[in-house]
Amino acid sequence: CGLCEEACPTTAIQLTPDFEMGEYKRQDLVYEKEDLLISGPGKYPEYNFYRMAGMAIDGKDKGEAENEAKPIDVKSLLP
């Protein structure tokens, strides 16, 4: 249905119409890291996890990174 793909904040879940990873035995569904690696940028090549995830960037304060909102001062919201 795609709900898990839409809800994933890091775009780690990507649904595709490919069925090459389908198996009949449960043990065959246990993948090692090498089995899951892809060659290429994936479904969303413009997505940069570190830019979107709020990870600290050297030389920049919170709210100064690309696509990052300034921190909200909750005390300034008081009536």
UniProtKB/TrEMBL annotation:
* Any one biological process term the GO annotation gives: aerobic respiration
Q: Which GO terms describe its cellular component?
A: membrane
Write down the superkingdom of origin: Bacteria
The family database entries (SUPFAM superfamilies) matched by this protein are listed as:
4Fe-4S ferredoxins (SSF54862)
Q: Which UniProt keywords apply?
A: Iron, Iron-sulfur, Metal-binding, Repeat, Translocase
Basic and acidic residues bias locations? 60-73
Q: Which InterPro entries match?
A: 4Fe4S_Fe-S-bd (IPR017896), NADH_quinone_OxRdtase_chainI (IPR010226)
Which Gene Ontology MF annotations are present? Answer: 4 iron, 4 sulfur cluster binding; metal ion binding; NADH dehydrogenase activity
Indicate yes or no for the key word Repeat: yes
Q: 4Fe-4S ferredoxin-type domain spans which residues?
A: 1-18
Q: Which cofactor does it need?
A: [4Fe-4S] cluster
Region called Disordered, residue ranges: 60-79
User: Is Protein biosynthesis there in the keyword field?
Assistant: no
State the similarity comment.
Belongs to the complex I 23 kDa subunit family.
Task: Cite the record's note on assembly.
Answer: NDH-1 is composed of 13 different subunits. Subunits NuoA, H, J, K, L, M, N constitute the membrane sector of the complex.
| Matching PANTHER family | NADH DEHYDROGENASE [UBIQUINONE] IRON-SULFUR PROTEIN 8, MITOCHONDRIAL (PTHR10849:SF20), NADH DEHYDROGENASE UBIQUINONE IRON-SULFUR PROTEIN 8, MITOCHONDRIAL (PTHR10849)
Q: What is this protein called?
A: NADH-quinone oxidoreductase subunit I
Q: Which organism is it from?
A: Escherichia coli
The organism's taxonomy opens as: Bacteria, Pseudomonadati, Pseudomonadota, Gammaproteobacteria, Enterobacterales
